[in-house]
Design brief:
The complex is a heterodimer of chains A (162) and B (205).
Chain A lengths: L4 E3 L4 E6 L3 E7 L3 E7 L4 E7 L17 H15 L6 E7 L15 H15 L3 E7 L5 E6 L5 E4 L5 E3 L1
Parallel strand pairs in A: 1-3, 6-7
Antiparallel strand pairs in A: 2-5, 3-8, 4-5, 4-6, 8-9, 9-10
Chain B lengths: L9 H26 L3 E3 L3 E6 L13 E10 L4 E8 H12 L11 H26 L4 E2 L3 E6 H13 L4 E11 L5 E8 L3 H8 L4
Antiparallel strand pairs in B: 1-7, 2-7, 3-4, 3-5, 3-6, 4-8, 7-8
Classes of the chains: A alpha+beta (162), B alpha+beta (205).
Chain lengths: 162, 205
């Protein structure tokens, strides 16, 4: 039997339990954050677009921002039975897809997203186990809830398991 | 403020579609002359889509595409993105470089320049129409190229829109060459403040 594959769209998050997998396709400057409790095998995957909800004019969708998505996703995992002290994080994405000679802040949003995610995780006291951010290429990320492996696929930069 | 694009009237959407029609028509004519092929073009779609659904327009977030991206400068800034499935991009390069179909498997820097130049010419043709209608001076930046997953490439634009709302106004046209099926999608995505400027300039505010 195939394990359930739960898709996570842009500006969204999903939580699940072993033996499911959580997948998000085609991350560019967005960041994918996998949270995982290795004992209950409960995890969540968020696909955030922007660093900070307080800086944006529209913040109706909390799943869009690093600072609001992660606490909500963690709460949902805890309601399913995860224990916060055991939850660890792995992140990937935050690329700069196009290179211009005079890179503006708009272009550097990938880097700012990655930084914001690290800060939020630190503030939430969640240990960051693996970090595959930056570069100029897209990534598809999959969190396998049976093992907690975070698989990162690219088009021509290979595939890795974090 | 809730999102201005959700409040557009049918007449405003029609006006935007007409601009898209003439702009894309100019661009298609330019492309047709460069590659010496007849090009069919769909009537532009003006859609207001949740941000996460925009990649579905080009086959889903993990579709392999080539994207030429330009910023638009002037009183109504925005972004232009010319997206082609990777195979179509390679075939377009075959035509531009005088190779036979299927020869291009990897792009060298000359091929990349050629694709960016195509993006440049299409954007120029498109912006000419937009400038004509609006009497606004709109200038494209130099182009940038990426070959990657559609979601990753589109994220550049979607993130900018995400700061203002959860929807994108997408003016999109599909090109197809006769016989050999090179397909491309041309997106004009005005920055959030620019839409009002454009609509005022064409008198349908």
């Amino acid at each position: 039997m195939m394990a359930e594959l739960i898709k996570v769209g842009m500006a969204d998050y999903k939580v699940g339990k072993n033996p499911a997998s959580l997948i998000s396709y085609g991350l560019g400057s967005c960041v994918g954050i996998a949270l995982y409790d290795s004992i209950t095998k409960i995890g969540g995957l968020a696909h955030i677009m922007l660093p900070d909800s307080t800086q944006a004019r529209s913040n109706e969708n909390p799943a869009k921002f690093a600072d609001t998505a992660l606490p909500l996703m963690l709460d949902e995992m805890i309601r399913m039975g995860a224990v916060k002290s055991r939850v660890t994080a792995k992140i990937a994405g935050g690329a700069q897809m196009f290179t211009f000679t005079n890179a503006t802040d708009i272009m550097r949003v990938g880097e700012r997203n990655s930084e914001a995610v690290r800060t939020v995780l630190k503030n939430m006291d969640i240990r960051l186990l693996a970090d595959d951010t930056g570069g100029n290429y897209g990534r598809t990320v999959e969190l396998k809830l049976d093992t907690g492996v975070f698989r990162v696929k690219t088009i021509d930069k290979g595939e890795k398991e974090l | 403020m809730s999102e201005e694009i959700l409040k557009l009237s049918a007449m405003q959407l029609d006006a935007l579609r007409e601009i898209g029609n003439v702009g894309a028509g100019n661009a298609a004519t330019a492309l047709s002359q460069i590659i010496n092929r007849k090009i069919d073009m769909t009537v532009p779609q003006v859609s207001i889509l949740p941000l996460g659904e925009v990649p579905e327009v080009v086959g889903g977030p993990d579709a392999m595409v080539a994207g030429v991206y330009l910023r638009v400068f002037g009183p109504a800034p925005g972004s232009i993105l010319f997206l082609l499935p990777r195979d179509s991009a390679f075939y377009l390069v075959d035509m531009l470089m005088g190779r036979s179909q299927g020869d291009t498997q990897l792009l060298n820097s000359m091929d990349e320049s050629a694709l960016m130049e195509i993006g440049n010419i299409l954007a120029g043709a498109y912006l000419n129409a937009l400038s004509y209608f609006t009497k606004l001076t709109l200038l494209p930046s130099i182009p940038a190229l990426a070959i990657d997953m559609a979601g990753a490439i589109l994220s550049v634009i979607l993130i900018q829109l995400g700061q203002m709302g959860d929807h994108a106004l997408v003016i999109e046209t599909e090109f197809t060459t006769e016989f050999d099926g090179v397909k491309g999608h041309f997106f004009l995505i005005p920055d959030p403040g620019s839409l009002g400027t454009i609509l005022t300039a064409i008198g349908v505010k």
